[in-house]
Design brief:
Elements: H1 4-18, E1 25-28, H2 41-45, E2 50-56, E3 59-64, E4 69-73, E5 79-84, E6 92-93, E7 107-112, E8 116-121, E9 128-132, H3 135-141, H4 156-163, H5 170-175, H6 185-195, H7 208-227, E10 269-274, E11 277-282
Antiparallel strand pairs: 1-7, 2-3, 3-4, 4-9, 5-6, 5-8, 7-8, 10-11
Helix pairs in contact: 1-7, 6-7
The protein binds zinc ion.
Length: about 290
């Protein structure tokens, strides 16, 4: 499942390809994604210009002319592909988890521009598209989400006061989009390793220093992952056809029973299922 860094890479790729371009035609081949593609989707998008692409958490936001928006969520297996006209079957990856042969039956949406098309492929159909009429609606759409790790709102007073009386473990909160937006399972384990905090530690027991670390390393780990083009755990490829390389930097994720990478630590990396998700941590230095 793409997390914030991978969605950011897709956003950057889309920005290079479709910014300031005009949508000519939209073809919906399958409405049945996680939520149904709205009936007026085609009419809503056609002949609109794309002003820019932004991202909030794991959502890609396409800014359209006349102050409207289209949101894309890639779900578990959504990928976006760039197809030049007159070059049939030659897909260029914009995004993730791409097999060399793109099964056409999963090409659910096609957005055509003058010389190329953008194709949305999603075998598991957990992704979705939404149309948003104006800024107020957009604001409302994300009003129940917590701040992103990069936001100024994700600061010490916010984190300390949010967590101070909570009895659930900290791993749970890092995945809770109401607390912080965009951190997923891989990065939660990595962040807690750098913080030297055991993922099962109750939020209520975290001290101020630990809250500071959570803020600092959330930003650092995600920034680094974006710089390295995301994590290619399942053939994620960016627009230039390059794989992300952050998976080479994993300190704990998928390193079960291997030695801890912290200098002078004799611990081993353990795997535990916490809230139904695989969680990796060092049994010595994460307290
Ligand atoms: Zn360790």
């Amino acid at each position: 499942m793409p997390e914030l860094p991978e969605v950011e890479i897709v956003k950057q790729s889309l920005d290079k390809k479709i910014k300031l371009k005009k949508i000519k035609k939209v073809i919906v081949r399958n409405r049945n994604l996680r939520s149904k593609i709205p009936k007026n989707f085609k009419i809503f998008l056609e002949h609109k210009n794309i002003k820019k692409i932004s991202r909030f958490s794991k959502y890609i936001i396409i800014h359209l002319s006349k102050g409207s928006f289209c949101i894309i969520h890639l779900g578990m297996s959504g990928t976006i592909h760039f197809l030049k006209k007159n070059k049939k079957n030659k897909f260029t990856n914009l995004s993730f988890y791409q097999s060399p042969i793109l099964p056409k039956k999963h090409n659910h949406i096609e957005i055509q521009f003058q010389n190329f098309s953008i194709i949305y492929n999603d075998p598991r159909r957990f992704g979705f598209f939404e149309i948003i009429r104006n800024k107020d609606e957009l604001y409302k759409r994300f009003s129940h989400f917590g701040p992103e790790p990069f936001s100024k709102l994700f600061n010490l007073s916010y984190v300390c006061s949010y967590l101070k009386d909570k009895k659930k473990n900290i791993k749970n909160f890092l995945l809770d989009q109401k607390f912080v937006s965009g951190i997923g399972n891989i990065y939660a384990s990595e962040i807690l390793f750098f913080c030297k905090i055991n993922p099962q530690k109750k939020a209520i027991n975290l001290n101020k220093e630990e809250c500071k670390k959570i803020i600092y390393f959330s930003k650092l780990v995600l920034k680094k992952a974006i710089q390295l083009g995301g994590s290619s755990i399942r053939d994620f490829i960016n627009i230039s056809g390059n794989r992300g390389s952050f998976q080479k930097e994993f300190k704990v994720y998928q390193r079960e029973n291997l030695n801890c990478l912290k200098y002078n630590c004799l611990g081993k990396i353990k795997k535990k299922i916490i809230s139904k998700r695989s969680t990796f941590f060092c049994n010595k230095c994460q307290k």
